[in-house]
Specification:
Elements lengths: L15 H11 L7 H5 L2 H20 L3 H24 L5 H15 L1 H4 L8 H18 L15 H14 L7 H21 L2 H22 L3 H24 L10 H18 L1
Length: about 280
């Protein structure tokens, strides 16, 4: 019988080396898993984004037991990308870890360098932005909006683009001006609905969403988090409508809008009373 004592696959305490070996074997072109072998960076990217959101969801719900597993799923995505990159001769997991460690050292001279640690969090944020700006310049990202990742969720990217533009003075100084712009874009959308092509309607709708993201920024509200909370509220209240109908042996399709709207209002009142 073969001695498995040195095989990290069988060492439950091996941690990261065990995970790296698991992925290496999954991708082995002769003995690996056919599904894992067929994947590439583009096919895995959606899973990477999904796993990041599942981490955020576990944190938001305070589920620390689930968070452990979700962080593992997210780490697996990093390992998967690194394994594919190593196979192609681009980089390795160790080099990924080395790059991010060096980046953190470079961006924290008040911890790892000679700068004083005695400064406010606000000043540290300003210094961080200066360092990132220098990094972008080194990569020849010279335009104001260069480097804002295309793959970000659209609302999040909108806010990042607006923050970059605001740094050079391209921003409304008053919240009221943003609200006025929302009214203008909403009116254009109503007009577009009746007179323009579907593509033009979509464009006007996008303009309205972009300004709504800007309003959130001016109000100090994260649009992505606000919409996530609204989604959660909608889900809770619609579930309450469904439960009320189920108590009578019916489903939503056996009801009508007026009845469901009344049940929605009742769920809203009950929810606020329980707060």
């Amino acid at each position: 019988m073969a001695d498995d004592s040195r095989d990290p696959i069988h060492d439950v305490e091996a941690g990261l080396p065990r995970l790296l070996e698991v992925m290496r074997r999954l991708r082995d072109p002769e003995t690996g898993c056919p599904w894992d072998i067929e994947q590439d960076f583009a096919s895995i990217a959606p899973y990477t984004i999904e796993e990041a959101y599942e981490v955020a969801d576990a944190i938001e719900r305070g589920e620390m037991g689930e968070l452990e597993g979700e962080l593992g799923d997210l780490l697996l995505q990093v390992v998967f990308h690194a394994q594919m990159a190593e196979e192609a001769g681009h980089f390795s997991f160790d080099s990924v870890a080395g790059v991010v460690a060096q980046k953190m050292i470079d961006r924290h001279p008040h911890i790892f360098g000679s700068e004083s640690r005695d400064k406010s969090a606000a000043q540290q944020t300003l210094d961080w932005e200066k360092i990132k700006a220098a990094e972008r310049a080194a990569k020849k990202e010279t335009r104001v909006l260069d480097g804002v990742a295309l793959g970000l969720p659209a609302l999040m990217r909108a806010v990042k683009l607006q923050k970059r533009a605001a740094r050079v003075g391209f921003d409304w100084p008053e919240v009221g001006q943003v609200v006025d712009k929302i009214a203008e874009e909403a009116a254009e959308l109503v007009e577009a609905r009746d007179e323009l092509t579907p593509a033009e309607v979509a464009e006007e709708y996008g303009d309205l969403l972009f300004v709504m993201a800007n309003l959130g920024r001016h109000l100090g509200v994260d649009p992505e988090e606000a919409l996530r909370a609204a989604n959660g509220k909608f889900t809770r209240r619609f579930n309450a409508v469904e439960d009320a109908l189920a108590a009578e042996g019916r489903r939503p399709e056996h009801s009508d809008l007026a009845e469901m709207d009344a049940l929605w209002d009742a769920a809203k009142v009950a929810e606020k009373a329980a707060e």
